[in-house]
Design goal:
The protein is mainly alpha-helical. The chain has two domains: 45 residues, no CATH class; 107 residues, AhpD-like (Up-down Bundle), CATH 1.20.1290.10. The protein has eight helices and no strands. Helix 7 packs across helix 8.
Length: 188
């Protein structure tokens, strides 16, 4: 699979693209034009705003990285976005998620043995991908388990990473060389 968008290089970027790419690289420790960013940088003002939302979700969410990364992985699988999975499944394991839970998600199955917060996170992500909403019972359970702010953070993580999945799929971003779709990382 070849990407629909030619890779941006420092020489090919406008000053605005270069500024945003540098900002992205600074918050994500590397190349500012990987993954969805190569496409997003075609509109640097939008790319900048989106990367700020992503940085909050990944690095500042109060609900915790394990739940955020789990929601991202469920979202990636729901939208068949293997690059997103490839980038986030190792982070989920590093944050403490059981690789067996990811294996179930990769196989389109509901994981067994989740703790209450993981159950709610899984159910939120799966419900949003299937219906775009949460029913009253799930909302009440989510609010009791994660608190209002936690519900907001997980819902918005799913929404943001749905946008990432759509971007990756539309741009046809290939897995990095040697990447295996839906691979399950071993423990950290």
């Amino acid at each position: 699979m070849t990407s629909r968008f030619a890779p941006l290089t420092p020489e090919s970027m406008t000053p605005a693209q270069a500024r945003v790419a540098q900002s992205i690289a600074g918050t994500r420790g590397g190349n500012g034009a990987r993954g969805p960013f190569n496409m997003w940088l075609r509109v640097p003002e939008l790319a900048d705003r989106l990367q700020q939302v992503g940085a909050y979700i990944r690095y500042e969410a109060k609900v915790g990285q394990k739940l955020v990364e789990f929601a991202i992985c469920v979202t990636a699988r729901a939208w068949n976005a293997p690059y997103e999975w490839h980038a986030h499944a190792p982070l989920a394991v590093q944050a403490g998620l059981n690789p067996a839970h990811l294996a179930a998600v990769a196989a389109d199955q509901t994981p067994d043995g989740l703790d209450p917060a993981e159950v709610v996170t899984y159910r939120i992500a799966a419900s949003l991908a299937a219906d775009g909403a949460l029913d009253d019972a799930l909302f009440a359970t989510a609010q009791a388990t994660l608190g209002e702010a936690g519900v907001v953070e997980i819902v918005l993580a799913c929404g943001y990473y749905t946008a990432v999945a759509f971007t990756l799929n539309v741009a046809r971003v290939p897995l990095p060389e040697g990447g295996v779709p839906w691979a399950i990382p071993v423990g950290s």
